[in-house]
Design a protein that fits this description.
Blueprint (H helix, E strand, L loop, with lengths): L25 E8 L4 E12 L2 E10 L2 E10 L8 E11 L5 E10 L7 E9 L4 E7 L10
Parallel strand pairs: 4-6
Antiparallel strand pairs: 1-2, 1-8, 2-5, 3-4, 6-7
């Protein structure tokens, strides 16, 4: 079924001077707590088919934290509409001044397997930040 989705939670916002408005771009927002060594990653405004089961897993591979986002048909089927979703995960035991991240996304019913979305280094000494990943216009599927 399309529509009728809950409004996006505003509970997680990056501490940037002028954060990108939610519907303007897919953005990786992050927050790091050096005391608890906890890193929260939220890839916001990901455009996918509305009927999907979404999971996210993180594995460290050769010093790079690979964030694997997965979208699979819900009960084996898709619907005829698109929606925006957020992939959020929390990493514990993260230390150091920076961390290398790679985001890959797998839409299981599309050919080619997992595709790279973004890779780079987060400066954890900043404590929080935002990286714009995709500015593609997603109207009418996103409303603030």
């Amino acid at each position: 079924e399309c529509g009728g989705f809950a409004t996006r939670s505003k509970s997680y916002e990056a501490d940037s001077p002028a954060p990108t408005p939610y519907c303007d771009a897919e953005a990786l927002r992050w927050r790091y707590d050096a005391i608890t060594k906890t890193l929260i990653l939220s890839d916001d405004r990901v455009l996918l088919n509305c009927c999907g089961d979404h999971t996210v897993q993180v594995k460290e591979q050769n010093g790079v934290f690979v964030v694997h986002q997965k979208d699979a048909p819900e009960k084996g089927a898709r619907c005829d509409c698109m929606c925006v979703f957020d992939y959020k995960t929390t990493l514990t035991g993260v230390s150091g001044g920076s961390i290398d991240i790679e985001i890959v996304r797998e839409v299981t019913d599309e050919p080619g397997g997992a595709k790279p979305i973004w890779s780079g280094t987060l400066d954890l000494t900043r404590a929080a930040g935002e990286i714009v990943i995709d500015k593609t216009n997603v109207a009418p599927w996103c409303e603030e």
